[in-house]
Amino acid sequence: HPDSETIIMTDVSFLFSRTGRIWKIITPMPVNINPYDGWTVYLADILLYLQVTVLLITEVKEVALSIRHSGLSKGMKEYMNIWNLIDWIFVLGAYCLLVLWIIRVVRAMEVKDMLLDLPDNASVCMDDCPSYYATLFAKVSDLGA
Question: Nearest-CA neighbor of 5 among 134, 143, 145?
Fold first, then answer.
């Protein structure tokens, strides 16, 4: 869809049973190839990760203070409780999601570039078309997964 910069790859699979029944599986995979369509989306992501970074810095300071006050072993025992564990799980999870999101955005940019590089008419496309389209479909499939 050109207005929302979304492409849809539809996978159609047929399974043939020995009894003659045909099972059809149609899987549409919509992919937004431009997730950042305005400054507000950038702002929301920046604010989110600033907050996560503040939490990370706060937790690191708490660990350092506890270790400095009571030593490594006793300080870690004093620091460790369920709420600090939840904070660390949240921070690590948020940064893992950030890495995965960056990978997805880079892949989406690659797909967008490949789509923009397509020839305007089919007569220009000679021997290289099947491999080019296979690569393009594989990248779109990776994005949709």
Answer: 143
Which tens digits make up the pLDDT trace of 3-21?
Answer: 667 888 788 889 898 898 9
Residue 98 backbone phi and psi in degrees, to 5? -60, -45
Taking residue 106's Cβ as centre, other Cβ atoms within 10 Å add up to: 9
**Residue recorded with tokens 């300080």:** 75
Q: What's the angle, vertex CA 87, arms to CA 70 and CA 47, rounded to 5? A: 125
- Give CA–CA dist 107/114, Å, rounded: 11
Q: Is the pLDDT of residue 123 over 60?
A: no
Nearest to 110 by CA among 135, 90, 89: 135
Q: What is the pTM of this model?
A: 0.73
